[in-house]
């Protein structure tokens, strides 16, 4: 294992999410300033999430054929120019084009994880992948605050996008000059191709907040095939079938066994996506605060979520008798629901910031506990597919939420969003309470 290359990939992951977090939290406000409706913003967000889901397997298959480093370099260069166009555009139809391009090409985090499998033995991959996620999370904590400061300049969003472009160029230089010689050193290891299933647990413990977390399927390619065009066509068909598989997997789930936890995952993902999708717009519309303070509040949420992930094991010590994780999940959804309510009726920005702390902490813990419930119920030989199905459920929620929230915001203003996220969180609370009472009845019978 090349330690220097691993550290460089950590740096690329950090700079990538740091750069994205400079611009992403400001995008909704920028679109509003150009005259976009909340529905239009929701459509753009849902379109981006859908393109990420569709293009991820295709880009992953192509990288297996053409080379991971080459595709990563191409992705970095393409994204740098697309972000520049995004910042320079002053009309909504023009902004749609770079958003489509970014939805197709922005897979740098997944490509970094793929490159790690080329240089790291399978026995070390879980720990190394976890560190990669941590470095990326730190980048997303720092970025919004700095981006908020830059946005206060005249034409600030343009300067932010120029900075994003420069950071992508820096990453391109790192990959081109120092990582181009990476070869698939461990692809022959049978376990190395299954790392994406294992890292699902790590990803659930960190709050990425944006849809840059698309997974690669790790499609194997026959290196003896001479006609690369035929291979590309074949891999594209396989990739598209795997996208369909993400949906069909949900219909093949043994719903009498797993319906409850997948419903909880959907409701959690839906309520969170509504919150994050419109958070900056709500702060601007309700409290008229500057981009700098919007950046601070977003950074606070990321920091609290990351810190909660680190102390999750300590918190579990208070639930020694909670073998099925239902009590932890119930308490988490209660805190989440109350936090949503308090934020909706907060009299000032100071109270919003205070209520964001339990909200971010409970959301981070709920991502962990719902994953643990799946792991406990699933046989070892089926955990990969069930975790993947859980991620598909979350992806569906993240695709639907922006569209629903856009309609609600346009029709009922801030109150429509509050009703959506509070009702979904309370529904999850009632469902978890039902599961707790059912488990007690089963224990008494036994």
Automatic annotation (TrEMBL):
Source domain of life: Eukaryota
Entry's transmembrane regions: 6-27, 39-59, 71-97, 157-179, 257-274, 294-312, 333-357, 412-436
GO molecular function: transmembrane transporter activity
One Gene Ontology cellular component annotation held by this UniProt entry: nuclear envelope
Subcellular location(s) per record: Membrane
Gene3D superfamilies named among the record's database cross-references: MFS general substrate transporter like domains
Keyword flag Membrane: yes
Pfam families (UniProt xref): MFS_1
Membrane topology according to the record: Multi-pass membrane protein
Keyword hit for Heme: no
Coiled-coil portions: none
Keywords: Membrane, Transmembrane, Transmembrane helix
Matching InterPro entries: MFS, MFS_trans_sf, Tet-R_TetA/multi-R_MdtG-like
Alphabetical list of SUPFAM superfamilies matching this protein: MFS general substrate transporter
PANTHER family, per database record: SOLUTE CARRIER FAMILY 22 MEMBER 18
Protein name: Major facilitator superfamily domain-containing protein 9
Species whose genome carries this gene: Diploptera punctata (Pacific beetle cockroach)
């Amino acid at each position: 294992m090349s330690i220097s290359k691993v550290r460089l990939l950590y740096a690329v992951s950090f700079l990538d999410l740091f750069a994205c977090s400079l611009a992403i939290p400001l995008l909704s406000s920028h679109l509003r300033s150009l005259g976009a409706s909340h529905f239009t913003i929701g459509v753009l967000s849902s379109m981006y999430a859908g393109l990420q889901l569709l293009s991820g397997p295709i880009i992953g298959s192509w990288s297996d054929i053409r080379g991971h480093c080459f595709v990563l370099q191409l992705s970095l260069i393409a994204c740098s120019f697309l972000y520049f166009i995004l910042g320079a555009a002053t009309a909504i139809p023009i902004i749609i084009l770079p958003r489509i391009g970014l939805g197709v090409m922005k897979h740098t985090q997944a490509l970094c994880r793929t490159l790690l499998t080329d240089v790291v033995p399978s026995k070390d991959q879980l720990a190394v992948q976890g560190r990669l996620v941590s470095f990326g999370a730190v980048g997303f904590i720092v970025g919004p605050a700095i981006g908020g400061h830059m946005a206060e300049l005249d034409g600030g969003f343009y300067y932010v996008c120029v900075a994003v472009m420069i950071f992508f160029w820096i990453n391109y230089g790192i990959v081109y000059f120092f990582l181009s010689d990476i070869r698939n050193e461990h692809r022959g290891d049978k376990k190395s191709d299954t790392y994406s299933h294992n890292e699902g647990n790590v990803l659930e413990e960190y709050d990425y907040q944006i849809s840059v977390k698309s997974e690669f399927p790790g499609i194997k390619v026959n290196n003896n095939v001479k006609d690369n065009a035929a291979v590309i066509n074949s891999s594209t068909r396989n990739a598209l079938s795997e996208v369909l598989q993400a949906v069909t997997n949900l219909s093949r789930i043994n719903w009498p066994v797993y319906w409850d936890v997948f419903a909880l995952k959907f409701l959690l993902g839906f309520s969170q996506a509504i919150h994050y999708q419109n958070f900056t717009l709500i702060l601007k519309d309700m409290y008229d605060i500057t981009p700098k303070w919007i950046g601070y509040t977003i950074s606070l949420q990321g920091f609290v979520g990351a810190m909660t992930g680190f102390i999750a094991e300590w918190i579990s010590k208070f639930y020694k008798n909670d073998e099925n994780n239902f009590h932890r999940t119930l308490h988490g959804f209660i805190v989440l629901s109350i936090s949503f309510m308090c934020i909706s009726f907060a009299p000032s920005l100071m109270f919003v910031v205070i209520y964001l702390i339990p909200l971010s902490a409970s959301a981070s813990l709920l991502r962990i506990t719902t994953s643990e419930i799946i792991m406990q119920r699933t046989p070892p030989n089926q955990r990969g597919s069930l975790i993947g199905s859980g991620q598909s459920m979350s992806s569906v929620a993240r695709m639907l939420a922006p569209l629903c929230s856009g309609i609600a915001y346009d029709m009922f203003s801030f109150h429509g969003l509050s009703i959506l996220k509070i009702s979904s969180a309370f529904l999850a609370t009632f469902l978890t309470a039902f599961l707790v009472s059912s488990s007690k009845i089963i224990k008494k019978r036994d």
